[in-house]
From TrEMBL:
<keyword id="KW-0067">ATP-binding</keyword>
<feature type="domain" description="ABC transporter">
    <location>
        <begin position="2"/>
        <end position="230"/>
    </location>
</feature>
<dbReference type="GO" id="GO:0022857">
    <property type="term" value="F:transmembrane transporter activity"/>
</dbReference>
<protein>
    <submittedName>
        <fullName>Macrolide ABC transporter ATP-binding protein</fullName>
    </submittedName>
</protein>
<keyword id="KW-0547">Nucleotide-binding</keyword>
<dbReference type="GO" id="GO:0098796">
    <property type="term" value="C:membrane protein complex"/>
</dbReference>
<dbReference type="GO" id="GO:0005524">
    <property type="term" value="F:ATP binding"/>
</dbReference>
<dbReference type="GO" id="GO:0005886">
    <property type="term" value="C:plasma membrane"/>
</dbReference>
<dbReference type="InterPro" id="IPR027417">
    <property type="entry name" value="P-loop_NTPase"/>
</dbReference>
<keyword id="KW-0813">Transport</keyword>
<dbReference type="InterPro" id="IPR015854">
    <property type="entry name" value="ABC_transpr_LolD-like"/>
</dbReference>
<comment type="similarity">
    <text>Belongs to the ABC transporter superfamily. Macrolide exporter (TC 3.A.1.122) family.</text>
</comment>
<dbReference type="Pfam" id="PF00005">
    <property type="entry name" value="ABC_tran"/>
</dbReference>
<dbReference type="InterPro" id="IPR003439">
    <property type="entry name" value="ABC_transporter-like_ATP-bd"/>
</dbReference>
<dbReference type="InterPro" id="IPR017911">
    <property type="entry name" value="MacB-like_ATP-bd"/>
</dbReference>
<dbReference type="InterPro" id="IPR017871">
    <property type="entry name" value="ABC_transporter-like_CS"/>
</dbReference>
<dbReference type="InterPro" id="IPR003593">
    <property type="entry name" value="AAA+_ATPase"/>
</dbReference>
Amino acid sequence: MIRARDIVKQYRDGDGTEVRVLDGLSLDVADGDFVAVVGPSGSGKSTLLHLLGGLDVHYQGDVEVAGVKLSGLKDKELARFRNQHVGFVFQSFHLIPNLSAVENVLMPSHFGAASPEARKRAESLLDRVGLLAKKDRAPVRLSGGERQRVAIARALFTGPRLLLCDEPTGNLDAATGAGVITLFEELNREGITLLAVTHEDRMSSAARRVLRLKEGRLVEETRPALAGGVS
Ligand SMILES: Nc1ncnc2c1ncn2[C@@H]1O[C@H](COP(=O)(O)OP(=O)(O)OP(=O)(O)O)[C@@H](O)[C@H]1O
């Protein structure tokens, strides 16, 4: 699903010096995997997510996602790539406040009136995330966890096989965050590939693999075998 090779990404600092955030990073994510990327603040997690999602193409190295080589694509081709292959989920939901839940889910489909088919699909996705009964509510009348579920339904609208998530439980309390993580686990069992950057242990312990961003590269975390046995 994802193949990144020898990625170097640098930013220019306020005083003009180059800061190298990603430094020879490579990454492989198989179809159907669930990967958490962890690392301290400023280590480059969001930067990496932007490159993988085709939001930023100013780097050295190669990124291929869902069979599409991103380096060198023009803006229009990148937009098509994102629309076909990737759903984004952000920490702060990014819902449009004056649209209802179902209208937010419909956002990727149209600029104008939505077709009855599109509306049906949006409703079935809201049903999938447990929110059909609240489809006409504005985001302000939904809890944080419910807003994130609407955002996840919207991310799934175009039928992507990959969700890229930036701190998706970062604004949620423990219980609500746990519900959203359960939803991610279900989606992953249904075949969606997930890559989430996160500070949260709960999120990374739900993932199949945990990669730590360290000095501009990814290092696979080894996890202790799950404790089992007799109690
Ligand atoms: N547009 C930019 N211009 C200059 N420097 C930038 C820019 N975007 C990010 N940086 C710098 O690159 C580094 C990595 O930022 P990034 O947002 O990827 O880190 P992060 O690991 O996601 O951090 P956090 O966990 O706090 O969100 C930081 O030092 C940041 O200041």
